[in-house]
Write a structure and sequence with these properties.
Length: about 290
């Protein structure tokens, strides 16, 4: 049978999560997605109204299906963790069972198991602040949404990921080099995510032969990136300075994810894989 993938962090057809879903679908996987609760209604209605049909097209002209969209807020592990003001918030009130534990229970009830877990989400409320001006609350929120969310997803999904499966996340080079503008503790969150990738690779590998990798992606004008505010500058910088001078296509990240999730990558785990036209290898901009 084909593989089944759960991709957390898809709310439109512009980001890396969507591109990964599409590449995995192209490779024959069944696709489940986790969509941030406040973005759920607009994502589902856009899907229904055919707004994404052009970008749903596979190579043979057919449209890829999302077998199920699960509301998700990866900042909360269980219903007990959800504060009152979020519970009663209008944007959350309509949806049910969206904490990590509940989503995994729903996936288990609906489908039994998965083979591939993808984490393609990040959030840093103070991303536009300098690290040295970030509040404790903002810093911890960035780590909670962008790093611990991955540990939580993997921890809860692990019992229902089939042995031999694969898990992936998305990171950014601001974890290891100075990228002014990627503030609010987001650089720290990506450093944690990359370090956790190694430790989780060991733990999931020994437990269930599951491989854990992260893709360090170059700049893409996604919704999240536009919110940071410097994405056009980063795209121009990359175009000018990278070894391969071309625009980075989300599909290139999607295809790498499909490779990493496949048996072709059976000996790759605990790795940070750069998909950035080679920009990471440059020492100076030229
Ligand atoms: P995106 O906007 O498509 O994806 C981010 C998603 O995270 C959104 O769908 C958003 O709704 C979701 N999200 C935010 N908080 C959430 C929460 N608490 N629970 C569940 N979902 C939540 O943007 P993207 O740029 O494709 O981001 C995907 C991943 O790629 C992120 O990890 C990002 O850091 C990483 N990345 C992006 C770039 C870039 O230039 N765009 C570069 C390197 C890495």
């Amino acid at each position: 049978r084909g593989k089944r993938a759960f991709i957390a962090g898809v709310a439109d057809d512009n980001g890396y999560g969507w591109a990964i879903a599409k590449s995995l679908a192209q490779a024959g996987a069944e696709i489940l997605v986790g969509t941030w609760v406040p973005a759920l209604n607009i994502f589902e209605s856009s899907l229904r109204r055919g707004k994404f049909d052009e970008s749903r097209k596979l190579q043979d002209g057919s449209l890829f299906e999302i077998a199920k969209v699960y509301p998700l807020d990866a900042v909360y592990d269980t219903p007990e963790d959800v504060p009152e003001d979020v519970k009663t918030n209008k944007r959350y009130a309509g949806a049910k069972n969206w904490t990590v534990k509940e989503v995994v229970e729903s996936v288990k009830n609906d489908f039994g198991t998965i083979d591939i877990l993808v984490h393609s989400l990040a959030n840093g409320p103070e991303v536009s602040k300098l690290l040295s001006e970030t509040s404790r609350k903002g810093y911890l929120a960035a780590l909670s949404a962008s790093s611990y969310s991955y540990i939580s997803l993997l921890k809860h999904f692990l019992p229902i990921i089939n042995p031999g499966g694969a898990s992936l996340s998305l990171t950014y080079i601001a974890s290891e080099r100075i990228i002014p503008g990627y503030g609010g503790g987001m650089s720290s969150a990506k450093a944690a995510l990359e370090s956790d990738t190694r430790v989780l690779a060991f733990e999931a590998g020994r437990k269930k032969r599951i491989r854990v990798n992260t893709i360090s992606a170059g700049p893409l004008g996604s919704r999240a990136a536009k919110a940071i505010g410097f994405i056009d500058t980063m795209i121009d910088y990359s175009f000018t300075n990278a070894p391969i001078q071309k625009e980075l296509n989300a599909e290139e990240v999607g295809n790498t994810a499909a490779f990493l999730a496949s048996p072709l990558a059976s000996a790759i785990t605990g790795a940070v894989i750069y998909v950035d036209n080679g920009l990471n290898a440059m020492g100076v901009g030229v």
